[in-house]
Amino acid sequence: MRLLLATALTMIAFAANSILNRMALAAVSIDALSFGAIRLAAGAVMLALIVAVTRGGVRLTRTGRWVGVAALLAYVFGFSLGYVSIDAGLGTLILFGTVQITLFTAAIRGGEAVSTRRKLGAALALFGLGLVLWPSGAIDISLVAAAGLVVAGIGWGFYTLNGRRATDALGATMTSFVLAAPVGILLALAPLLFDQTMLVTHYGVGLAILSGAVTSGLGYAVWYSVLPHLATTTAAIAQISVPIIAMAGGILFLGEPLTPLYLAATVLVIGGVALSLRR
Question: Which of 73, 134, 150, 277 is most buried per CB count within 10 Å?
Fold first, then answer.
């Protein structure tokens, strides 16, 4: 039961990141690079403080250090850049579709047995996700934005795989954020070298800090503590629920409409995830 609750909590945190990112970028309150850099810095500060208080000092872990850093940077900046100029629904489908492909490919290459029930559950959940997120009418896709979301999906897939090897969930998450934050800040400042302006407001900074310190830093630490107890395919399928949770947050906090299609998709996704996770 504790594992189930921890997994559910992390899925809510992941969905909250999507909502906070949408709120910041849709309001044109901050640019994508600045949002990503502040998000990483806030997560690093929060996690370092927690480690310092609870353990009397900060020590960077070694296991999977640079893989975690590179994967985190790819995810955070691909995520922010992708949602600037692409439809949110299609973007989410691209992102989490890429995550599923990455994790399932890694599971098969690693010799992990994937039962027929788990395959059916994944197919059912993905169908429900596609049903509600696939855009209607003409599709106008920015290839750059789509590529950013594909990179983000691959990055998150590798970050998840790296977490399965972590013996110290909090320390591994803190290490990734602490080492990634300076790189993120340099990336955010890079446009100034080409006489480009940065867009930063109090509202945008506040959302980025909340996303970094709480729903990213703390959420990812919980996720790393859960991953060693989950099969790779189980971790993949559980994350299919994130877009549905994000849409529920949009209905509650952003005034988005509740439609019969959303309800049907929710039933399909939850049913598929439950079928896959059922022992």
Answer: 73
* Burial grade of 156 (CB within 10 A; 0-12, 13-18, 19 or more): buried
Distance from C-alpha of 142 to C-alpha of 97, rounded to nearest angstrom: 17
In order along its 279 residues, the chain shows pLDDT tens digits of 688 888 889 989 988 888 888 788 878 899 999 999 999 999 999 999 999 999 988 889 887 889 999 999 999 999 888 877 765 556 677 787 788 788 888 888 888 777 777 778 778 877 877 776 666 655 566 778 888 888 999 999 999 998 888 888 899 999 999 999 999 999 999 988 887 888 999 999 999 999 999 999 999 889 988 888 888 888 887 887 887 787 787 777 767 677 787 778 778 877 777 777 666
Residue 82's domain spans which residues? Answer: 2-277
